[in-house]
Write a structure and sequence with these properties.
CATH architecture of the largest domain: 3-Layer(aba) Sandwich
Radius of gyration: 22 Å
Structural class: alpha/beta
Strand order of the largest sheet: 4-3-5-10-6-9
Order of helices and strands: HHHEEHEHHEHEEEHEHEHEHH
CATH class of the largest domain: Alpha Beta
CATH superfamily of the largest domain: Periplasmic binding protein-like II
Number of helices: 12
Number of domains: 3
Distance between the termini: 66 Å
Oligomer: single chain
Largest sheet: 6 strands, mixed
Strand content: 15-25%
């Protein structure tokens, strides 16, 4: 027999996983800490599995509970899809598309697609959020986004489908006056933060080449990393489309590896025609601007 779980209990579980404190988790779902505790105790009882360690003053989710948390996010996302579909049917609304994109997708590769979609579909509400890949995929799984354009995740995510849109060149850039010689002479580095999908791709290749891995600064913003390189704080690895663009672009990058940009959606979601239409228009059909900015780096 399947356990009789409620959407509310699953919402409590996700809130505790995301919030820094028990009180903040309770506030985020609009209940008292004691009500939150009672709801989660009932969830454990119905599952027949302990999800929390009670050794410390504040209960902590056990690592073994993460499959339950991932399932909870997936269920909440699908339930939210169903609720929005029912609301659109009742109101006769044309639809709404909540789009998440990493910065290079929104600014370099797909601004023309976004503009054309909004112009051709004035009855569709288009909401755009720009954030790193990990954050976008988390929002997508939770049902807060309908579609995300991001870097391929390092592993498959439960309930998420991805489709490759394009491959980007990642290149090494040295401070002014420094030649890009043997990998053993590279660094120190200014890079995307630890844990980011691109940082994982970059470190895998640098480690394979035997390059030093000393990181002295981090930022999610490519423009910040470019400026750090320009004033000599360190070396970087960036998509050539961002590193070399504009009057303050970096020069003489050497191709290191590639990363793939994908469009991600929730698997088995109630299909929204507006979302499907947008995803279709994202499929490779490169604009002149994207071609110009996506040129491969030079090498010396």
């Amino acid at each position: 027999m399947l356990p009789d779980l409620s959407i509310r209990q699953l919402e409590y579980l996700v809130a505790v996983d995301e919030a820094p404190t028990w009180a903040r988790a309770a506030a985020s779902v609009g209940v008292s800490p004691s009500a939150l505790s009672q709801g989660l105790a009932e969830l454990e009882r119905r599952l027949g599995v302990s999800l929390f360690d009670r050794e410390s003053r504040r209960r902590q989710l056990r690592p073994s509970a993460q499959p339950v948390v991932a399932h909870a996010r997936q269920v909440l996302g699908l339930a939210a899809d169903l609720a929005r579909w029912a609301d659109r049917i009742k109101r006769g609304a044309a639809g709404r598309v909540r789009i998440g994109m990493i910065d290079v997708a929104a600014i370099v590769h797909f601004p023309d697609t976004l503009q054309a979609f909004r112009a051709a579909n004035p009855g569709i509400d288009v909401l755009i959020r720009v954030a790193p890949s990990g954050a976008l995929l988390k929002l997508l799984a939770a049902g807060s986004l309908d579609v995300a354009v991001c870097v391929t995740p390092p592993r498959a995510l439960p309930g998420i489908e991805t489709r490759v849109l394009r491959t980007e060149v990642l290149a090494v850039y040295a401070p002014p006056g420094r030649a890009i010689g043997a990998p053993s002479t590279w660094g120190p580095w200014v890079l995307f933060p630890a844990g980011s999908h691109t940082r994982t791709v970059v470190f895998t290749e640098l480690r394979r080449l035997g390059a030093p891995l000393d990181v002295v600064a981090e930022s999610h913003q490519p423009d910040v990393l470019r400026e750090m390189v320009r004033f000599g704080a360190g070396w970087t690895v960036l998509p050539s489309s961002q590193a070399e663009d504009g009057p303050r672009g970096l020069e003489h990058g050497r191709a290191l590896t590639t990363r793939q940009l994908v469009v991600a959606t929730r698997a088995s979601a109630v299909r929204d025609p507006a979302v499907d239409l947008f995803v279709e228009q994202l499929q490779p059909r490169r604009s002149a601007r994207a071609v110009r900015r996506g040129r491969p780096p030079t090498s010396r």
